[in-house]
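Justification of resources, computational component.

The compute hours requested in this renewal are based largely on the per-chain cost of generating structure records like the one below. Each record pairs the submitted sequence with a full structure-token output. That output is archived, and it is also reused by downstream analysis tasks.
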Amino acid sequence: MLEAVDVSHRFEDGTEALSGISLALQPAEKAVLLGANGTGKSTLLRILDGLIAPTLGEVRYAGRRVDRAALRDADFHQRFRREVVLLFQNPDAMLFNPTAYDEIAFGPRQLGLEDVDARVRHWAGLLGVTPLLGRAPFGLSGGEKQRVCLAALLVLEPRVLLLDEPTANMDPRSTGWLVDFLADVAQTTLVTTHNLSLAAELGTRCLVLGEGRRLVYDGPLQDFLGDHDRLVAANLVHRHRHRHGDAEHSHYHAHDWD
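The structure output for this chain reads:
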């Protein structure tokens, strides 16, 4: 469905962001992308969404290469932009309309879809943002902004959801709601997170980017979470000292930074 084939990427200053990444997402699959800071998770999502062109390798959607030529094809461009969507970690990067209603309506309007108002109100209801529709998005809380942004993507009825740290701006109640919501969506999902305690709730397949910006694991999520040596090698757990009165000991902790 969505595939990366030997994808590598370097930034303009020569910094290596990704090296030789190959993966394929299947219809309705729920996968989690893990990795320490700086391993290229966000860059990979942007490449899969066609926002960044890889330096080497290619991305394919439904068998067609996603490149500048393909995205200049009006029919393919409309299809790809409707069917593959990306939720940014920082919702402010996605908000630019005067009201939450206009944020959600923007995509359907741009793509010339019918029944825009009905679509907006349907997804606003499902995402619990109907009371916010008349408000300016920049005045909303972080969790409210993230819900509006998610509604603005789901209103397109995409086939693939790429989500970059979707709980980063949410409080515990909103985080719990989002985990339950994503469990019920029919779309293929690829979610990045630092929160290992949430990872098992977000998917069954695990993709791990190592500090060499390479894919170091692709397999069952529970198998990876239960492999202490792999967690340490991927820099996803850390060790520090604890003091209990006069006694001192140290042990490993997960990097739950959301």
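The CA atoms of residues 236 and 255 lie 6 Å apart. The longest helix spans residues 142-154.
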